Amino acid sequence: MIGMWTLFKKEILRFWRVGFQTVAAPVITGLLYLLIFSHALGSRVEVYPGVSYTAFLIPGLIMMSLLQNAFANSSSSLIQSKVMGNIVFLLLTPLSYREFFMAFLLASIIRGLVVGTCVWMVALFFVDLPMAQPLLILAFAVLGGGLLGTLGIIAGIWADKFDQMAAFQNFLIMPLSFLSGVFYSIHSLPPFWQTASHFNPFFYMIDGFRHGFFGQGDIAPEISLTVVGVSFLALSWLTLLLLRSGYKLRG
Amino acid sequence: MTPAIQIEQVHKSFGAFEALKGVDLTIEQGEFFALLGPNGAGKSTLINLLAGLIRPTRGTLKVMGHDVVADYQQARRLLGVVPQELVFDPFFNVREMLRFQAGYFGLGRKNDAWVDEVIARLGLTDKAHTNMRRLSGGMKRRALIAQALAHKPPVIVLDEPTAGVDVELRQMMWEFIKHLNRDGHTIILTTHYLEEAEALCSRVAMLKHGKVVALDSTRNLLKRIPGKNLRVRCVAAELPASLAPLVRAREDDAITFALTDAAQIEFVLAELRGAGIKVEDVEMQEVDLEDVFMEIVRL
Ligand SMILES: Nc1ncnc2c1ncn2[C@@H]1O[C@H](COP(=O)(O)OP(=O)(O)OP(=O)(O)O)[C@@H](O)[C@H]1O
Ligand SMILES: [Mg+2]
Questions:
Q1: How large is the average pLDDT for residues B116-133?
Q2: Which among A37, B71, B117, B148 is placed 20 to 30 Å from B59, CA to CA?
Q3: pTM for the full model?
Q4: What local confidence, expressed as pLDDT, does residue A44 receive?
């Protein structure tokens, strides 16, 4: 237990020490999206009855920041320690692959929650945001952060170089998070893209999370919760298999 | 008593390349042991196998009786490894790193006193709060050694700990390591400074092309080469053919001859004089580990 706790604590400190880059910067990015999109579209679009576009946008932005930062935490820690070589300090220890996984996972979730909470607090200056189902909000935040934290571990194990990691981020994480309905309701899309969106797990995370605020969304939150939960479990299982096999970590 | 290290028929291949070809090695508890061999012999590969950083293709390795694969947690708790590469975590200072490292091994705050002792013994007290990134190369090496000792392992493996380290630290480090050895810790080291191995280690294994080619006490190895060395300082020149078989080493301004018999001194000097080579100085030397190494490994 002490071993896992120590690794968790180290992973938290690692991002907290450089909080300007890891927390403040993504909050500012989220805020910029908010200003630009609400200014450009705010007066013209009302996605749900009685919900302004700016209000609609905020949960999506919070979730997007949360997801991207959960991913960034585990993936950047692993790729850096692999490139620097200091990953040996972990590999020399009796930490089991489960403890290794749990520590990275929990730290990723925490980083996601911290960034998400900051974006939410800043957004409160701009608009009153309801909270119809707080537990649903929390469930999606934790599961979403866990899912992306896990994906970050997989990417960190797989990538050998920073550019491979950048490719993972630019060709997988970014498109999936932008095409997930952060900036629009998928009902406004042509049928093909509506169908395509249903294959994007990010769509369920964003929609379910937003449902927690407004009590309405594109699909039933139970379905979203199931999809997100099952994806999280499946990816965790895959990650544990990779870690147990020593893939790319123990030659 | 359970041996500190037990290696049986270990093979390790990287793709088609066989880095270790059936290594057998037993090291008893409390030994001060040297693992020697030319570059690429497989020393680090063997150490990485012990540490569980890589997995054997065949064979078994045990640390204090615990298999490094099947019983890896116990094996790793008992082992401290100083890696050959100078690696560090750029986010933390020395003391934080050492505490984390001990924490990974399940040790809590009670171990902090030991961490501070290690810091002091390696002359890092001034740098305890310095970020790892800002340490000089030699200081980073000290921190790397300290990290291997953070959990006070009974078996300590040092892979070229003195590469790039100044004389003062070498003295300080060996004093500390000898102290640990006297306290019962088993020490295994690799080094290319053979006089270090000769001075410190009671037993030596020599590795070449992934095989153990010699394994004996340092004393017995030194006895393998009878006689003494005659080192002659002279201006470089063409040597008479009669002396060629006796040459052990050549430097720019000196030649070392391997003698088995004191009578050969006169012969060597006479031949040199006969060839018109001006001798500036002569010196008799004991055979050292380097000579043995050359005989066994290089030939
Ligand atoms: N990961 C790897 N992949 C492929 N080949 C490797 C790998 N690690 C080591 N080797 C090869 O195995 C052989 C033994 O390497 P090793 O690092 O064990 O040598 P060494 O005895 O420690 O040498 P040195 O004194 O230079 O440190 C070398 O030929 C090396 O190129
Ligand atoms: Mg080596």
A1: 95
A2: B148
A3: 0.92
A4: 67
Inter-chain residue contact B53 with A91, CB threshold 8 Å: yes
- In-domain check, residue A251: no
Q: Which residue in chain B is spatially nearest to A88 when comparing CA positions?
A: B53
Q: What's the total number of domains in chain A?
A: 1
Strand-pairing partners, residue B216, are B204
- Position B135 pLDDT exceeds 90: yes
Is the residue at A55 inside a domain? yes
Closest CA to B133 of B85, B83, B86: B86
For residue B298, is pLDDT > 70? Answer: no
ipTM score: 0.93
Dmax over CA atoms of chain A, in Å, equals: 59
Q: Quick check: B164 and B7 in contact, CB under 8 A?
A: no
Name the β-bridge partners of B19.
Answer: none
Range of the domain at A69: 2-245
Partner A contacted by B55 (CB < 8 A): yes
Largest CA distance in chain B: 74
Please tell me which of the candidates A5, A13, A88 has its beta carbon nearest to residue B83: A88
User: Pocket of ligand 1, candidates B45, B57, B82, B212: which has the most ligand atoms within 8 Å of its Cβ, to mutate?
Assistant: B45
Residue at B295: amino acid letter: E
**Where are chain B's structural domains?**
228-298
Residue A41, domain member (yes or no):
yes
Mean pLDDT of B75-81: 98
**d(CA B43, ligand 1 centre) in Å:** 8
Q: Are A162 and A84 in contact (CB under 8 A)?
A: no
Give the single-character DSSP code of A171: I
